[in-house]
Amino acid sequence: DQRTEIEKLKKQLQKAYEDIAKIHDLYNEQHKKNEILIRQQNSQFINQQECIKAIIKIANAKRESLFNDIESLIRDNNKFSIESLITYTSREWFNKRNQVAIKFIETLVHNNQDNTLSQEKIFKTAVAIDTIYGARHGKYVSEIQLVALAIKYSIARSKMIINIDNHITSSGSYYRFQKWLEELSENEESLPEGLLFLTFDNEQRGQKNYLIEDLI
Q1: By percentage, how much of the chain surpasses pLDDT 90?
Q2: Global pTM exceeds 0.90
Q3: Smaller CB count within 10 Å for the chain: N or C?
Q4: Tell me: the pLDDT tens digits for 7-21?
Q5: Who's near 133: CB < 8 A, 6+ residues apart?
Q6: Angle at CA of residue 192, ends 191 and 195, nearest 5°
Q7: Is 146 left (phi over 0), alpha (psi -120 to 50) or beta?
């Protein structure tokens, strides 16, 4: 009868709706898969651009604090004293510096096979941060580079080498170097009375100081 036909048509329509819904779900699922494939194909460029944007955003947020840290180092003349240079450690220097810059460089140089940084790598990381500080502020003079410069000068005795080195590192000018030596000599303890002999081994590799007292 008519009622039976209507119920039959309703069931057919319901099944058709369900089939359409399944097809729609399959279409959406496939569409999402296609979007994932497209993103994967372009991921290298997209991720790089996003990383660059994130780094620039962080750098802009930390520029002022980094600059303030550098200026505090410029005002700290005590860092060039013999006592400070003898007790200098890269890790202690890290703890007083801008931690965002420190962690960024540490993460870049981190070796996946080792959870800790070696002493050599810690020092090289300190030099990298030190170089960034020198690039950020033209008046910054690094105690690390100044000591390295003193070693170079003791070998070459060249004013030109100092000035050239200052353009590459933050070691300071020849005038700054001479001023530092004068400051060290002013604080140097006087030798006890006696005769000081400077001797070298046969290969000129090591200097030994012998103080012979009561000869004068």
Answers
A1: 8
A2: no
A3: N
A4: 888 888 888 888 888
A5: 66, 69, 70, 73, 140, 142, 170
A6: 85
A7: alpha
